[in-house]
Every structure is written in structure tokens, then in C-alpha cells.
Design goal:
This protein has 9 helices and 6 strands, in the order H-H-H-H-E-H-H-E-E-H-E-E-H-E-H. Strands 1, 2, 3, 4, 5 and 6 form a 6-stranded mixed beta sheet that branches. It is globular and about 45 Å long.
């Protein structure tokens, strides 16, 4: 409930998931539980921010009784952020058609192409979520036109991935929202590690992405006003 996922509590109870087992959940597990991409990202980010005593033991876990503050807690700040969610259309069908190695190469090419476009427009890939991306415009570096940068990036991703060799032309859905969040770095720039962004904006962007049609960008009203 603290991270806005109370609507999924019944599924967690049904599968007997508690605080001890939650840190071991993978993105695939969360998808099986019915969590869309946005809530999956928030859950994984929340797990990253847990106290070391609540995570699986590791060699870097401090001794019992030593307080540890996560980087997210230390570096978190309030920012206006434009969040972009991008998700590939028909990835399940692709997985059925392609050999796993060929699928891996295709997904790598897709992620590289998307990442290059995001970098071109000054965005930050906060997390790769299987066949999707969560991107921040406005953190760690803010620009006056971050909303416009996000929309241009979304449109260019749609065009750019057409050049990737695949059984059929790749398509994506894009959702973009702008608003206040509390955000901090937890992975020292590593796009495979979730960055914590707390607020309604990431959820809204994820919901808009789920409503978008193939090769369509949907923007929230606040983003639309900034584009004006």
C-alpha cells in the first residue's frame, strides 16, 4: 500500500508471498501475478530500497545492529519529471517464432536502438523491463523542454526500430506523463538497476502506455500543456 500497489494484495496473499520471500521475486514472477509494467517497476525499485536485513543475504550485508542507509534514501530529491514507458507489441509471438539465441540478439538490438534515441534527446534509461523501457527526462539532468524531448524520443523510437531485422516490423506502445516525484539514484548509472521514482507520474505513464495502440504515443494532459 505504501507504494500504491494495494490492488494486487489479493494475488500476493493467494501465492503466500510475505516480506521474506518478496525480495526473491523476479520480473517474470510479477508478470505472472498480473502486475503491468509500471507497477512491476515500482515493486522492483522498492525491493532495491529495502533495508539490507530485508534483502537476501550477500557478502556486502552489514553486521546485525549496524544501520545502513540506501543510496536512494541518501540522494533522493523532489523533481519535476517526464516519465516515458515504452513496451514492444507482440513480444510473446516473437518468442514463439524465434530461437532463444536469435530472440536475445533481437532484444539486444531493440534495447540498443531505444537507448541511443533516449541518449540523443538527453533522457535517462532508468530500467530495462524485458521488452520495455522506463525512461526519465529531467533526471539526473533537467532541461526546460524535457516534455518535448520525451515526445520526440517516443516518436523517433517508433521510426527507428523499423530498421531492426525481425520476422515482422517491430512496433511499440509509448506512454508519457509529467509531474512531481521524489527520485534518487540507486545503481550509479547502471540501466539494469531500478532507480527509485516515487509519485503518481510513473504509474500514469505506465497506464497511458497500456492504452496506446501499436506505434502510438499517448501523453498526459500536463505533458500536453507543456508541449504547447
Amino acid at each position: 500500500a505504501g507504494i500504491g500497489l494495494e490492488q494486487y494484495a489479493e494475488g500476493f496473499e493467494r501465492e503466500q508471498i510475505d516480506a521474506d520471500s518478496a525480495p526473491y521475486l523476479t520480473e517474470a514472477n510479477l508478470k505472472d501475478l498480473g502486475l503491468p509494467m509500471g507497477p512491476r517497476a515500482r515493486f522492483l525499485a522498492a525491493i532495491q530500497a529495502l533495508s539490507p536485513t530485508a534483502r537476501p543475504a550477500s557478502p556486502t550485508t552489514p553486521p546485525s545492529g549496524v544501520a545502513a542507509q540506501s543510496p536512494a534514501a541518501a540522494d533522493a530529491e523532489r523533481r519535476q519529471l517526464t516519465v516515458l514507458f515504452c513496451d514492444m507489441v507482440g513480444s510473446t509471438a516473437l518468442a514463439q517464432k524465434l530461437d532463444p539465441e536469435d530472440l536475445r540478439e533481437l532484444m539486444h538490438a531493440y534495447q540498443q536502438r531505444c537507448g541511443s534515441v533516449v541518449e540523443k534527446y538527453g533522457g535517462h534509461v532508468a530500467q530495462y523491463l524485458g521488452d520495455g523501457l522506463m525512461v526519465y527526462f529531467g533526471w539526473p539532468h533537467a532541461h526546460e523542454d524535457d516534455a518535448e524531448r520525451a515526445v520526440r524520443a517516443g516518436l523517433e523510437v517508433i521510426a527507428s526500430i523499423k530498421g531492426i531485422v525481425a520476422p515482422s516490423a517491430l512496433q511499440v506502445r509509448v506512454g508519457i506523463a509529467t509531474g512531481a516525484v521524489v527520485v534518487g539514484e540507486t545503481g550509479a548509472g547502471d540501466a539494469s538497476v531500478p532507480k527509485v521514482a516515487v509519485g503518481e507520474t510513473p504509474n500514469l505513464a505506465a497506464r497511458l502506455q497500456s492504452l496506446a495502440g501499436a506505434d502510438e504515443v499517448i501523453v498526459a494532459p500536463a505533458t500536453h500543456r507543456l508541449l504547447g
